[in-house]
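Hi, does anyone understand the following?
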Amino acid sequence: MNREPETMRETLVIVSFLPFLYYATLDGAFHFRGRRVSLAEHVIHLVIGLAVGLIFTAAVMANSTVMLASLAIFLISGSLDEFVWHRDLPAHESNLHAKEHLALLIFLGVTLLVDSSLISIA
C-alpha cells in the first residue's frame, strides 16, 4: 500500500496550520503580558482552543464530519468572544487577530482544496 499521497496531504494540511499556530501563540502570550483578560474570557479562549485542536486533528485525519462539528463549536464560541470581549481592542491586538483569522482561513482553504476533486495528490 502506497501511503505517499496521504503523507503529502497530511503534510500540506499541517504546514498550512503553522502560520495560524504562530499567531495564536502570540495572541495567547499577549493576553498574559499585554491586555489582561478576565477568567470568563480565558474560559472562552479555552473552548476556542479545544475546538481548533479538534478542527486540526480532524483535518489531518480527513474526518470531515468531526471537522464540521468542531467548526460549528468554533464559530459559536469565537463569535461570542468577538462580540463580548473584542470591542475597542488596541490596534496591536486587533492587527494580531486579523492575521490570526487570515491564517486560519488559509488553513481551512488548503484543507478543503486538498480534499476536493479539483486537485489530485495521488
